[in-house]
Design brief:
The complex is a heterotrimer of chains A (370), B (189) and C (206).
Chain A lengths: L11 E5 L11 E7 L2 E8 L7 H7 L6 H7 L4 H16 L5 H29 L3 H22 L8 E2 L2 E2 L7 H24 L2 H7 L7 H7 L4 H4 L7 H4 L20 H25 L18 E9 L2 E9 L5 E7 L1 H7 L1 H4 L5 H11 L3 H5 L1
Antiparallel strand pairs in A: 1-2, 2-3, 4-5, 6-7, 7-8
Chain B lengths: L1 H7 L11 H7 L3 E7 L2 E6 L1 H12 L7 E9 L3 E9 L6 E9 L4 E3 L9 H11 L2 E3 L35 H4 L1 H5 L5 H6 L1
Parallel strand pairs in B: 2-5, 6-7
Antiparallel strand pairs in B: 1-2, 3-4, 4-5
Chain C lengths: L2 H10 L11 H9 L2 H21 L1 E7 L2 H10 L10 E4 L7 E5 L4 H13 L5 E5 L1 H5 L22 E3 L6 H16 L3 H4 L18
Parallel strand pairs in C: 1-2, 1-3, 3-4, 4-5
Helix pairs in contact in C: 2-3, 3-7
The chains are: A alpha+beta (370), B alpha/beta (189), C alpha/beta (206).
The site of iron/sulfur cluster has 12 residues of chain C, from helix 4 and helix 6.
């Protein structure tokens, strides 16, 4: 059969999702294709919009805490941290030193757990199923520690306003230490299994380029931004709690492609291990709770708190009108803004690349839709 | 009007006056402002919004990064809040625009930052604000054809919708199950 | 089917109707043949089919929110659902059971129904998590969360928890296998599509 030059090709509109195994949740992508090439991607979101901001106005400050876990369910501790910090600054309460150290520890552990899910999921998306199983093996160990401390595997409700639910259980620090000693070796294992795999590399290198200028304009943050060569980490730029005392690097990569973002996350897991070692060494004894009134009634006012969640800059804008309920609560969702830059990264990509790029963004639909 | 509002939303750490620098930059385009917990806030009007943002954007050390955009319902007025950052730094300023609820219209800032596309759509569907010049202001998070603006304070969800209606068993178990169990029934079980 | 049509269809629904116990095949076997033998034959066929079905259950992974992460964890290393013959598929056409895990929202409701309609008979639905059961935490104030998956599709097994522990997940799978072992081809043949009336069909466990 010979090629007929008069043959015309047509653009094709394909609908991917909202129920699709590799969209990391309920995301719908409307693709306009020319053969294998992507001309346009239009994300359609809102399939997990669960009215979290409205619910905040109907409940009091303490009742809302469990909902913060459900907002970005892979890094529940980070959300709790942001919310608790916002309410405490409204109340003018400063948590005790031990409490601050434990909070930072938990947030870093959660960062590892969250990046492990990302790691496994990206492997799955690019066709390497085994990595997923390895990553979840290590993740289970962290979840076990979380469960010992808080009683829950996924959504902890461990931070309370003014402190913590309980002190660290006996054996926690030893368990964490043995995990930390082993974990870098595991990361080397994943590295050999996935990152240095030829197929994986050819699928990720040079794919999904995001320039620093576009990242600035779209408000991209977190590892996705650091993969474009901008060294911006709120733990450094606007440090909170004990981060100024801790020593860590902010890994960045100039390439701006999927591989760069992947390597940044991989490096970040090791940095978290480094941070956790320091936390364990320096964890002070003492009280974990400060006294807060039974009825929380912050003075009228507002606060905007930002922290670095595993996905980027997580902001809480909290307004109080002096009553027991928040007047307004707004989440600055890192995934929401990162996903908005997705069409930009997909320009000129092939259909098969879409999934890899999406995986490298590490979005959580609960975070996108709130 | 700004005076009264400042009273209304007085701060935890009692608001301080704006720094001389910001006052000089933005003074003529704002209707009020304060510094709260070290973070400046500027209050402006819809007409002055774009000039003000442009000016902040073109400073020698510009507030070049829009990080967040959201709405707040204050009863008779709807406020749109823009959070600007000075580059990738810790410094942040909130720019607030007050809009009357009946005719909430504000120019879009999508020309300055790409980030604004989705948040503006979100504010539009949640608060009923019209962003003049926004290229595509359809529903973003809510299903097509959703009625009402859910984040307004007086919004109540549609309880007659069969997908959202309260569960009769939970609301009034007696009506569904025919009264509480009698003495001997409980005794038998 | 759009969201509007789904809502309208639900509005017209008379209420919870029991499923008609019509078994055309069994009736036919009883009346037209030497009764006992044919019925015994059906029973043997049932046993073979049901054992096969229970030993290799392909689930449609309908993960929606936090519970979906637990569902992934159950499928992964430590809990390993493959031991029970459960294998997650992304397509409804090849699935025996739909595992709805997470918060169902208005925007997603008609998608769920459409996927359910695409599954081949016999099909089962497991509602995982409080959200899927009743709206859970979002029951009281949310304006966009469907108060339970069973308002849209019939549910066979409910797994409570927020999120449920992996063990209760595995328990649900075992319950599902019990259900499957009770299925008879006499119930399904002749029924074809399950009709509108058993929208809210409920099955009891033995
Ligand atoms: S039941 Fe709980 S864990 Fe499961 S989806 Fe709902 S909120 Fe999340």
């Amino acid at each position: 059969m010979t090629w007929d030059p008069t043959c015309v090709t047509e653009e094709l509109v394909v609908n991917m999702g909202p129920q699709h195994p590799s969209t990391h949740g309920v995301l719908r992508l409307i693709l306009r294709l020319d053969g294998e090439r992507v001309l346009e991607v239009r994300p359609d979101i809102g399939f997990l919009h669960s009215s979290l901001e409205k619910i905040a106005e109907r409940l009091d400050y303490r009742q809302y805490l469990p909902y913060t876990d459900r907002y970005d369910y892979l890094c529940a501790m980070a959300n709790e941290l942001a919310y608790v910090r916002a309410v405490e600054s409204l109340l003018g309460v400063e948590p005790t030193p031990r409490c601050q150290w434990i909070r930072v520890m938990m947030a870093e552990m959660n960062r590892i757990a969250s990046h492990l899910v990302y790691y496994g999921a990206l492997g799955m998306d690019t066709g390497a199923t085994t990595v997923f199983l390895y990553c979840f093996r290590e993740r289970e160990r962290i979840l076990q520690l979380f469960e010992d401390a808080s009683g829950q595997r996924l959504l902890y409700h461990y931070f309370r306003i003014g402190g913590l639910r309980n002190d660290l259980p006996p054996g926690f620090c030893e368990g964490l230490r043995s995990f930390l000693d082993e974990f870098p070796r595991r990361v080397a294992e994943y590295d050999a299994l996935l990152t240095r795999n030829r197929i994986f590399r050819s699928r990720t290198e040079g794919v999904g380029y995001l320039s620093p200028e576009a990242a600035l304009s779209y408000g991209v943050t977190g590892p996705t931004l650091r993969g474009s060569g901008v060294s911006y980490d709120l733990r450094r730029a606007a440090p909170y709690y004990v981060y100024p005392e801790l020593e860590f690097d902010v890994p960045t990569r100039p390439e701006g492609d999927v591989m760069a973002r992947h390597l940044v996350r991989q490096e970040e897991m090791l940095q978290s291990v480094h941070l956790l070692h320091q936390c364990l060494d320096r964890l002070p004894p003492g009280e974990i709770n400060v006294k807060v009134p039974r009825k929380l009634k912050p003075d009228p006012g507002e606060i905007y708190v930002r922290i670095e969640s595993p996905r980027g800059e997580l902001g809480v804008y909290l307004i109080s009108d002096g009553s027991e309920k928040p007047y307004r609560l707004h989440w600055r969702a890192p995934s929401f803004h990162n996903l908005q830059a997705y069409p930009e990264m997909c320009q000129g990509a092939y259909v098969a690349d879409l999934v890899a790029i999406l995986g490298s963004l590490d979005i959580i639909l609960g975070d996108v839709d709130r | 009007m700004s005076e009264g509002q400042e009273q209304q939303i007085a701060s935890v750490s009692s608001p301080e006056p704006l720094s001389a620098e910001l006052q000089e930059i933005a003074g003529d385009l704002t209707t009020g402002g304060c510094v709260r917990a070290g973070r400046p806030e500027l209050l402006t009007t819809p007409e002055n919004l774009l000039p003000l943002l442009n000016r902040l954007h073109e400073l020698p050390e510009p507030y070049s990064r829009l990080t967040d955009l959201c709405g707040v319902d204050w009863g008779d007025r709807v406020q749109v809040v823009y959070a600007l950052c000075r580059g990738y730094g810790a410094e942040m300023v909130l720019v607030k625009v007050d809009l009357p609820r009946a005719q909430a219209e504000v120019p879009t800032v999508t020309g300055l930052w790409q980030l604004a596309f989705w948040p503006e759509r979100e504010v539009a569907e949640m608060f009923g604000v019209t962003f003049v010049g926004h290229p595509n202001c359809e529903h973003l998070l809510l299903p097509e054809g959703f009625v009402g603006y859910p984040l307004l304070k007086d919004y109540e969800y549609d309880r007659s919708n069969p997908l959202l209606s309260p569960d009769p068993l939970r609301e009034d178990p007696d009506a569904v199950l025919g009264g509480p169990p009698s003495e001997d029934e409980t005794g038998a079980s | 089917m759009g969201l509007r049509e789904l809502e309208d269809r639900l509005r017209q629904l008379p209420g919870n109707l029991p499923r008609a116990p019509e078994q055309p095949l069994r009736r036919w076997a009883q009346t037209h043949h030497e009764g006992g033998l044919s019925v015994a034959f059906i029973n043997v066929v049932d046993k073979v089919l049901d054992t096969g079905r229970a030993c290799s259950t392909w689930g449609l992974q309908f993960g929606l929110a936090c519970c979906a992460i637990e569902m992934m964890a159950v499928g992964a290393s430590r809990y390993d659902l493959d031991r029970f013959g459960v294998f997650f598929r992304g397509s409804p056409r090849q699935a025996d059971a739909m595992l709805v895990a997470g918060t169902l929202t208005l925007k997603m409701a008609d998608v769920l129904r459409r996927l359910y309609d695409q599954m081949p008979e016999p099909r089962y639905v497991i509602a995982v998590g409080n959200c899927a059961i009743s709206g859970g935490r979002f029951y009281h104030h949310a304006y966009s969360v469907v108060r339970g998956v069973d308002r849209v599709v019939p549910v066979d097994i409910y797994v409570p928890g927020c999120p449920p522990r992996p063990e209760s997940f595995i328990d649900a799978i075992r319950k599902l296998h019990q259900l499957m072992r009770r299925e008879s081809i006499a119930d399904t043949i002749g029924h074809g599509e399950r009709q509108h009336e058993d929208f809210f069909r409920k099955r009891e466990l033995p």
